[in-house]
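User: I'm curious what two different proteins look like when written out as structure tokens. Can you demonstrate?

Assistant: Sure. I'll show them one after the other, since each token string lines up with its own sequence. Here's the first protein:
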Amino acid sequence: MNKVHSSLSKLELLAVYFSYAIRYLYPLVLIPYYGRVLGSSGYGVVLAGLSLSSALWLLVNFGFSTIGGRDIVHTEVASERDTIFRDQFTARLLLSVPGAIVGGIAVCRSDIIANVPLAGFFVVAGGLLSAFNIGWYFTSTGRPRTNVLIEVMGLLLSLALIFTFIRKPADVDRAFPVIFTSSMIQTLVAYWLVRKEYTGFIAPMRAAVGLIKRSATIFIYSGTAVLVLDASTYILSLLAAAPEVSAFGLSERLVGAALSIMAPAAQILAPKVMYLVTRNPDRANLLARRTFAVFFVGAVAGVILTRLLSEWLIPLVFGPELGHAVPVLNIMIFILPLTVCTRVLGIYFLIPRKLERQLAWSGVISAVVNLMVAIPLASHWGATGMVYARILAEGSLLVMLIFGIWKAGLFREILGINEGFSLPARFGRWLE
């Protein structure tokens, strides 16, 4: 098992991004297929179900992955990692009970999902299963490429099953069993690969409850806000027709695919920043600033290109039935730069310094803003109204994070003012 090293391996980062390329191509292949085979309404059903599954995953995960990754990078012996692993599994198992109850109620409330036979069962089961993903364990023990390969295998398997079993609009009832089967195989492979690294699955109840308490603040930040945001498509399915759901869901998927480009960097860089922040904070800050600059420039470029090309590219690639998603996408794309800011500030600056309490109110306020404006706006303007609610929520999250950073006195660290480098010297360090 490899330890996380303090130096950045450019070759390692490049390898992860190369492997992740297929993950970014996945929605670009799958969305047009769903749109043309299932139609706008059928694809709306799939998007509503996936939104609910994602929300259940976040609920049961409860911030455990962040806490587990941070704990493991500071361990030295296998027995410590074994204890962390068992605590994590047991805590997830405990939260699966309320997760299943919430999921069952949500399925019954959504006519779009409930009207498809067995869809509700597989939507809930798939969300709970996703919470037991151990990608956090691979990355925090220095094996991000293993995690990426497992995910790529799962995506390829999912595509193969979908192309085989979903061939016409009436096959919409097969979508969720197929997705669940792929996820189950991916999970089994991951656990089999680390089977010699843990002595069991169940930890003492006190330890699991203690982990839940320690993760509560992280959940309030990353869970509360993101939970509400990820559930937006499901919430819209309660307020609007399936075509509106598909327009919003398509836009959300494309923006999500763009944001997922940050994921492999986080797998490599976040554990390194967590490791460096107590040993070499100047290096940790420099790494975080570079990450922000690269992704923010990319987000602005994404906004410009989307506004220029979406009107003819979306109908061409995803089919004329989804052409009504263009106006929605042209608004939602502005979430990109906002989310880059919030993710970098949270993941690379505040969480490594164990300032989760500074993050808690940010998540709560963002979620409250989203819920307060989503229902009236979506009821009146459908998908467009839900997009405006998302932008307002993300904006409020950014404002609260900036306030938390100011309160914690981190502005000088973030800007590198205390590091003693002149501007030419700081620019030169970018070329290292």
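Here's a second, unrelated protein for contrast:
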Amino acid sequence: MPSSPVAFLALALWFPLTFVLFARMAPLRALLVSVLGGYLLLPPLVAFDLPLLPALDKLAIPAIASYLAAWTIRGERAPLFGAGIWAALCLALIIGGGVGTALTNGDARFVGGGVVLPGLSLRDGLSMVINILPPLLIWALGVRYVRSPSDLRELLGALVAAMLLYAVPMLVEVRMSPQLNVWVYGYFQHQFDQMVRFGGYRPIVFLEHGIWVALLTYMAAHAAALLTRLSAPERRRRLLAALLALLVMVVLCRTLAAWIYALLFVPLVLAAPPWLIGRVAVAMAAAVFCYPLLRLYGLVPIDWMLEMAGKVSVDRASSLQYRFDNERVLLEHVQMRPLFGWGEWNRNHVFDVDGSILTVTDGEWIIVMSSRGVVGFAGRFGLLVLAVLRAAQAARRAVNQGAGGQAPLLFAGTALMLAVNMVDLVPNATMTPLTWLLAGALLGAAQSAGELAEDPAATPEDPGPARTLI
């Protein structure tokens, strides 16, 4: 872990700053500024490591501070188990799965070369549960504070505004090379050669990798496209300019996956009916959830994907082949302990006879599957699938009831954004605070819409052209 006084000072100051935000802003806006701002601006790879607490990093500090500020300043609690039986089941799998992983991995593992990996104890299981709590708190806060289409629109507007501001340091790094984390916090957070693609630099700013920046920039462009379509004519020109600016930044991120997402899904959001957008989102989310099974039985068109990647460049095809090879080896390893996985301390990896690690865990799905097994995967990814399904159902219900305005398109378009993020979790570990916030927000808004539909006397909040951060 890097040693940077400035980085630790920034982390420490974000905690009281979050309390100030909740004292002076509406709770949803305070949550968005704390969580999104903290993720974009705080230093990566550093954390306060205190006993009986999760690693207090750029994800955990905004999450815990927001939860405590909402509770103490606003007097509002966001219970984890308050979003329905299916969400509760997913949470039970996530939390209980950590204990199950510890209980089924008590044996030491001898991997060769005299290397012995320790067995897990109940203390390790408790640590796994504690470490997953911060993202779950963000999810719960999303459920609590996003209760209407207007709230969803506020979230999308905050994302667009944040990434438009972030475009300034991104452009600096595109021109001068990725150096901002070095200049501000005193260290570089990844391998510099991975920030060079297609004849130029791709920005990383204060995130984990340039791929993360590219995905968030695409998601902001997706949100801008959705807001452009929903906006009144007098505001559409400004939102269209924001969309074009963000699409330019997507190109400058020099990440093939983000280019593909923009080419496929921005036109869909701008032109397709809500029912089609919703169905595409559900199909994509279901495909990601079933991906381990499809991969296990050879139903993923690997050869075709490699052929398509080869048409872009030999390097991209080689990188994709390397990922597929790792997935195959790790899946074989997972089959030895399928329910709860192999746990911590590199036990989820495959080793050479001399004790060196042979595998690389790139995708979030294989990280979760190898370390937490089917139970952990079903809980974590099930929570994301549930959000997409509930949002698509809310969009369809609004259409069937003859609802006008932005509600059907907002639900379907935001569900598609989360589904695209889920697709990116197959090759990459891009599970960010925005992922958890979107999942909670969609579930909360859809749940509220369902309650209004069941109560004819209830008066829904007007989802008309509300002002957002942009």
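A detail about the second structure: The first strand starts at residue 109 and ends at 112.
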